[in-house]
Amino acid sequence: MALTQKIIAKGEKLFKKYLKCFWNQAKNLKNLRDYSTCPPTDLEKIALADEYIAEANRFINLGKPANAVDYYQKVLAIYPNHARTFFFLGMALVECNKIDAAKDAFCNSARFFERKETELIWGTVPLINNKYLSNAMSDIGWKSNTLVTHYYSVYKREDFDIYFEELIPTWLTNEILKTRLSPYFSMLYILEHASIVFIPFLGGAFGSTPLWDFESQLLQQAGIKTVLASYGGDTWLYSQILNPCLRHVLISDYPQAGRSEETIAAKVRYWQENADIVVFGVVDGISRWDVLPVNYVCIDESQWQPKKYYSQNDGINGVVRVIHTPNHRAVKGTEFLLHAVEQLKAEGLQIDLILLEGVPNERVRELMQEADILAEQFILRYGLSGIEGMASGLPVMSPLDFEVYTRLLRRYSYLDECPIVSTTPENLLINLRTLIKHPELRQELGIAGRQYVEKYHSRKAAQYIFGSVCEKLLYGKDINLMNLFHPLLSSYNKSSPYIHHPLLENNLPKKYLEY
How far apart are CA 177 and CA 197, in angstroms? Predict the structure, then answer.
């Protein structure tokens, strides 16, 4: 008898140890309905699960996440592989401040999602460049969408595909919770659809949540690849910026980043360690990059028509129009341009300076056609505005003088083909005077600028860069990403004519200079 009792006790112990999850499911089902004599049918299970999900959602909406947790767990007792329920359970646990338990739930969610499509998602900061990159990839057959938090006033809502707010379910009516939970619903969309996400070092959907340092692990669990591309403000650690003049203007225009360096540094370190691919954006404070374009920003060049007519005005026989598009004046060096223009006017030159601040992109496009020179900026190397200027056939002025930054891009990328006139506050007066007095030089640089954009900042260039990245990540193709643009090794660089122009390492030849 004693032996029989020991065998029974041992059996119960083994049963609870190895079948604990099923034991708990059975207990939950018994507590919810009396199925002790008649197990529920499949239809009854579906109805019961729907009832519990609705009740859990109601408690979320009421701000009672602990109650919601109970009901989501009841659903999982019926359907233990239900990916969405695991995700909502994780969200409710975050609201309960049970972060570790939430991470477990999210990981379980990621394990069970099945994605049938290969979708590229670009976000979540509303950078217009993401629109161009996404559209370029769509043009060659990839399913690609932008996913953003909002849009800036100089652009249009329809510039981006999906907004966080659009992914919030209709049952959530609590306005405070909508704001707080919208990143989670966006992550849910990513888990259900994405194969690769393209994000800055701020992170993606979880970037503003307590789970920002868990995002990579969750995406990895779901088999989703991450490509990191900096836009500057997400990456700069002011104490590590090599150029003190750049550091100075950033502190002037963006002082908060200097006070938040530890937060920025933590995210930079996290993504440098965990990203699948890092696309070169900045040098300072970065430990790795896997692709080295001079600037990965690409546009839809068809929207920016090159000039059909170049003015022969030289400031004496007629007015020369100079356009400048500062969003923040210190970073762009606007005060140096204003001073130079006043000096040249005092010399008798006719100049019309067009300052565009907060102007819609369509209007900028129109005014580019009317201008003769784009004085882009004088502290930071060229960006989107400079690319738009070159696409419009304008000669562009931006600084490409800081050897620590530029030698890398001349030796291992395509900077020597760039026809931008390297301009700093110190040579701004000379360069501007020279461009004003030499309309034939403006035309030569403008034509070369358009060619440069078509080769390195166009839809074709975007497809080459990010198509190579996607094929390596998703299909394991043997692609040397680091040498995509190496002057000697790149087949792409050699596939179209070298961009010839009169500049020597982006400086005007002495024969042109007007002192």
Answer: 25
Evaluate whether residue 459 is within a structural domain: no
> How many angstroms separate the CA atoms of 354 and 365, rounded?
13
Strands of 222-340, DSSP E: 225-229, 277-279, 320-324
By the 10 Å C-beta count (0-12 exposed, 13-18 middle, 19+ buried), 265 is classed as middle
Which stretch of DSSP H or E encloses residue 274? Answer: helix 261-274
Q: How far is CA 244 from CA 247, 290, 380, in A?
A: 5, 27, 12
State residue 44's pLDDT score: 84
Residues 6 or more apart in contact with residue 336 via CB below 8 angstroms? 378, 425, 428
379: CATH: 3.40.50.2000
Do residues 275 and 323 both lie within one domain?
no
Q: For residue 13, tell me if it sits in a domain.
A: no
- Structural domains in the chain (count): 3
* Half-sphere exposure for 338 (CA within 13 Å, toward CB): 9
In a domain, 222, yes or no: yes
Fill in the amino acid letter for 427: N
Compute φ and ψ for 449, nearest 5 degrees: -65, -40
Quickly state the pLDDT bin for 129 (edges 50, 70, 90). very high
Read off the pTM.
0.89
Name the one residue in this structure whose structure tokens are 């868990």. 214
**Same domain as 430, residue 315:** yes
